[in-house]
Structures are given as structure tokens and as C-alpha cells.
Amino acid sequence: MRIAFIALLCCVWLQGHAQPAVQWKTLKQAEVAFGCTNCLWDGDSILFSNETDTVRFYPGRRRASVNGYTIWLNVLPEGNVSNGDWRLGAIDLDFIKLGILTATNGEPKQLHVMLDPGHGGVDGGAQSKAPLVFSEKHLTLDLARLVGARLEEAGMKVTYTRTNDVAIALDDRSGAARKAKADIFVSIHANFSPNALSTGTETFVINPAGYPGTPEGSRARGFQIGNANDYLNTLLGYSIQSRLVEMDAKAPDRGLKRQSFFVLRETSCPAVLVEIGFLSNPSELLKMLEPEWMDTCADSIAEGIFDYASKVDALNVAVREKRNREFEQKKAKVEKEKLAAAEKIAKVIPVADTNSTTVVQVEQPEPDAPATNTVEKAVIEVKPVIEEKPAEKIQPAATNASPESIFDFYSTK
Ligand SMILES: [Zn+2]
User: Fold this and answer.
1) Domain 26-101 adopts which CATH fold?
2) Can you give the pTM of this predicted structure?
3) Radius of gyration of the chain (CA)
4) pLDDT top residue among 385 and 161
């Protein structure tokens, strides 16, 4: 009992320690970012809309929606709209504004897609209950093949982590994507819940470093390989999830969620994990086993990938521009501080007057004696400012960004 209590304390400390101090955006800043003059508050939700997009938040909930599709926030918004003190996590504004809404359609990029049918071999994955017993591993393989055929038809290169009923370790799955130098990794799964009524689709991407995942109780982690693609992950996840939602108007939209699944955190290219429906729901399983439904589902996943392919270049440009802006801002800040420090010194040291015979005498300290005169005190005071670490070098694109630069990007220090 005592050990359990200590373990709980350690767990709480670690979780608290990993969570960075939240940076917030005010209601006004959110309005400016979403390009609307006034948000609408109907007593239930807050709506930001402009000519093309609508973004809705629900007080007290991490659930939000972008153009009608559900996404889950990393930070619960705080405050009250009627008081005007409502505020949104800066990281969420950033992912919505840049990751989802900035990217405009361009020429679809011919991607190399790694499809990962979940489970296989001795690992059957989720299994439905009698009388209709069915293993997840078969459904995921069948669906991956259908998706792959559509992508290849459109000229994309497709590779698979498995093409038959074999067990594959998780690190071999992410390793395969690295080895193949795939552009994106799409892991296909079917869901399971003890509640036989659970229904609908959901898509996961990795949670940002320092923030917990969407499911209750999931923990925050430090920077993972997958976090190098946080913006691209968001766009890919949103693109596929929104297409899956369109496929079945009756099925609930469980949304774009975040969770640190192994294949999401260890894959170096943008990666998503799709849960296409619940095997544990008998009527949903029957629906999923219909060939027409499988075809529609494969169409939806492929369409989501095409949507991403037509926006990824624009997003890469936007991310690069954002990082350049931030680099310039940091540089300007350091220069300003250097200037202020130099002015402080100049005020203390008298300006040499060549016509004057006055000699300014500065007492010289002993070689190892602590600084005592005014000039040296001033230098000591400003030294930390002068030696402040300069801004880190910008990485050329999101996909090439180093872990350190991304972590620094979200650092609140
Ligand atoms: Zn699974």
C-alpha cells in the first residue's frame, strides 16, 4: 500500500513535471487569428467564423470542431466568454490555424505511402464475440489492400508492413517506414470497447511533447521522433478523419485524437492510426463486413490521403515561414537587449574628452579580487544579457526539423 502510494506520488510528480507551462491566447487574439471581428456565443458554444471556415469551442470541454469535424484540444480552454476572459491554449490555436486551415489546395504530390494493416499472425487484434466471431487482423489487411489499390491507381507508390497473415513487431513497422523512406505512414485498425453500443470512427496522431493524449489518464511524454511532424500529422489526421466522417452520416464523429501509440511516436514520417469502427458493436461489425462498406471506407481513406497530398507543400511553406518569423523575432530581441546593455555601460563610463586634461582615475583591483568599482559592477550586471544564448538555427522544413528545434519551438522558457 505504502509502495503504491509512493509510486502514485512519483507518477503525479513526473506528469506534472512533463507538462510545460501553458501559453494562452486571448479571445481577441483568437478572433484575429481566425479572421473574424466578433465570435458568437450562444450559451453553449463559441463560434469563430469567416468567409470560408468555422471553428467551434465548447466551454469545459476539450472537444472542438473545425468546419464541422471534431478535433480534440491539447489544453482545456479557460475563462468565460461573457466576461471576456475566455482563453485558448496557444498550441491549439497554432495547430488549427496553421496545421488545418492555412494549407490551400495545390497540385497533389505523388507520395510514397506506407500502409500498415494492424496486427497479424498470432496477434489477432480485437475479436468480436459469438455468434459472429471475427478478428481485426483480417479486416485491416483487406482494407489496406483496397486503399493501396486506389492510391496506386492514382500514381502513388505504396508499400505495406505486411501483405499476409504474419505477426510483425511494432518497431519493425515503424522501422519499415524509415527504411523505405516513406512520405507518410497510415496504420489501419478496428476498434473495440466493453460497451457494445460504442460506434463511429476516430483517427489518432501523436500528442505534442509535454502534453497528455486525448483519452483520460494518458500521460505526457517528452519529445518523440513523431513530434518532428506535429503540423503534418495534424493535417494528415484531419484530412482522413473528415473523409471517414463523410462516408456515414449516421455514425458519430469521434474525432481527431492524440495518443502516443508506438507506431506514431517512433515513425519518422508523418503518421496516423485510423480506427474505422467497432468490432465490439454487432451491428457495426455486420456493416463493416459488407463489401460495399469496405469499398466506401477505402475510398474515404484514399481521398483523405489525396487531400493531404494537395496541401502538404503549402503547409511546409507556411511552417517554414512561421519558423523564419520566430527566428527573426528572437534575433531582434537579442539585439535589443545587447543594445540596452551597451547603453547601460556607456552611462557609467565617461566619454573621453580629447581636449580636456582631466584624467579619470579608475581604481584597479587586485588580480583576483572581486570587482568593486562601478564600471565593473555594471559589466557584471549586464553580463547575463550579453551572453544570452542566441536563437537556434532554423530548420528548412517541418519534416527536416531537429527534435531540439521543435521542442524549443514549444518551450515556454
Ligand atoms: Zn488494433
Assistant:
1) Copper Amine Oxidase; Chain A, domain 1 (3.30.457)
2) 0.79
3) 27
4) 161
